[in-house]
Amino acid sequence: MIILFLSLVLIFMARYPDKYARESHEINVRLSAERLSHIDTTKIVIIGGSGCGFGFNSQLIYNRFDLPVVNTATQAGIGIVMQLRMYEKYFSKGDIVLIIPEYEQFTKKCAFGIESATLYRILYNHYPEALKYLTPYQVVNTIKFIPRYFRVAYACKDLIFDTINPYHRSSLNEYGDVTSWEYRNHKIGIPAHTIQNDCPNEDIIEIIRDFMQVQEKKGVKCILFPPTYMSQSYENSALFINTLSEALLHYGIPFVTPTERYKFDDSLFYDTDYHLTYEGATLRTQMIIEDLDSCLNVAL
């Protein structure tokens, strides 16, 4: 009887809506799936954490390649593993998929989305169909966050979300980029971070490698880019980043360009060491276009 009661309580907690999630840019997970399901031509798809959401001007990519662009970016805490699983069914021959995990997404907990309630919060509130992609490992390690999820969701039940906030869903454009450019030109003080892990998780590298190989057999061009990272945080985390680069090379899926290329000056970041200002996002997009030109010309 006690077990049944506790189970019912847990189910109630798990099904409680999160107002922040529903009004924030996290809705891009569902919007991206909808966009992809309606595109039946060759397309360019961006997969990554919020550093991609806050770091692209996809209109420039469309202008250059004349192909539909879908930026699927959302909070990195959802895990790169889930991001790949959610969208792979929409990829077909001729597509170009840019895989741009944040550096932390190469660590086990972040890669699988099991270091916070983010994975569950986003899926339950926006894309519950994707809950079926959870592995038993993820399920076991996600359930423990349900009470925390409920506490936070209940605490923000009366949230009034300012629509000019870049994190509001209205800031998303038709590609999935987070805009509110004028607001983001005002840089907020950003502390530098250090990735503490000595080395990346090789299971994650294998998952990305296997995903890329399967897609390549379908005729999908997958390109692994390093994320754009704030200079000071990059220097602080150089050991991890260098070890990661070597591991990717060992597994046959090196970054398409040296990581240093996307080490940007601190002044180009808005409020985290991955979120760019308008100037930074435009510069990053122009560089991505240059690298894509090089990759695609070589492929041809």
Write the CATH fold name: Rossmann fold
How are strands sequenced across the largest beta sheet?
2-1-3-4
Helix and strand element order: HHHEHHEHEHHHHHHEEHHEH
End-to-end distance, in Å? 66 Å
Mean pLDDT: 93
Number of domains: 1
Q: Can you give a write-up of this model?
A:
With about 300 residues, the chain is of the alpha/beta class. The protein has a single domain, classed as SGNH hydrolase (Rossmann fold). The chain has 15 helices and 6 strands. The strands form 2 sheets. It has a 4-stranded parallel sheet with strand order 2-1-3-4, with helices on both faces. Strands 5-6 form a two-stranded parallel sheet. The longest helix has 22 residues, at about 280-300. The mean pLDDT is about 95.
SSE blueprint and pairings:
Layout: H1 2-14, H2 19-23, H3 28-37, E1 44-48, H4 50-53, H5 58-65, E2 69-71, H6 80-87, E3 96-100, H7 108-112, H8 118-126, H9 136-143, H10 146-155, H11 181-184, H12 202-217, E4 221-224, E5 229-230, H13 231-236, H14 238-250, E6 263-264, H15 278-299
Parallel strand pairs: 1-2, 1-3, 3-4, 5-6
Helix pairs in contact: 5-15
Question: Care to give the gist of this entry?
Answer:
This protein has 300 residues and is α/β, with parallel strands linked by helices. It is built from 15 helices and six strands. The protein has helices at residues 2-14, 19-23, 28-37, 50-53, 58-65, 80-87, 108-112, 118-126, 136-143, 146-155, 181-184, 202-217, 231-236, 238-250, 278-299, and strands spanning 44-48, 69-71, 96-100, 221-224, 229-230, 263-264.
